[in-house]
């Protein structure tokens, strides 16, 4: 397989506006669950800039469990993200959910995210593989590690090898967390593929009280990065209101994580 270490032993490094993902030094992706307004995104972007961080996330096309929940601002959301990212010199990561929106997204995003619900949408994976944009691929809701690797192979097989794998928790019988963070997936994916591996501590745990130790665990087992959601006023968020950090919580989370990173 093209994504395997047996095929290429050198680590894939992805350059996002100067932030090199996959070098061994962890990268961080923060931003709101959904893009709601320019002011909302800009507040998070400013906080990233203050910390010297480069990678801003935000959902414009939201794959919601209920059709009656907020579905995202669509292309308008991508425009807002790009405006904020340009203003604060950040790179944008945003999820695309249908093959025909991939081309539209190319003008607005630096990384196309393929979410857990679409991680086995093979037509979407192939279309993402025909672009030259880096792709952040989440693990499927109940996806095995080998299915995760095969999904990445779908992208690579079309010509695009710039893929970041993102462990985001899997469905298990456990109810104490939103999903079960499979920390062991990180060293396995690092061993079996040459791709950078990140851990999303928001959608895996769904619990703000344990995001920091889980993010530390991710770095300790060799993750190339951590993703978490940040919103200036989570109480009024249109999605994932319960699990996004506000800016003061984000400040504390990041300073403790960065201090941990410096020690390992
Ligand atoms: C997200 O990152 O916005 C998201 C919906 O995550 P996941 O696909 O992992 O559920
Ligand atoms: Mn979310």
Automatic annotation (TrEMBL):
<feature type="domain" description="DAHP synthetase I/KDSA">
    <location>
        <begin position="14"/>
        <end position="255"/>
    </location>
</feature>
<keyword id="KW-0808">Transferase</keyword>
<protein>
    <submittedName>
        <fullName>3-deoxy-7-phosphoheptulonate synthase</fullName>
    </submittedName>
</protein>
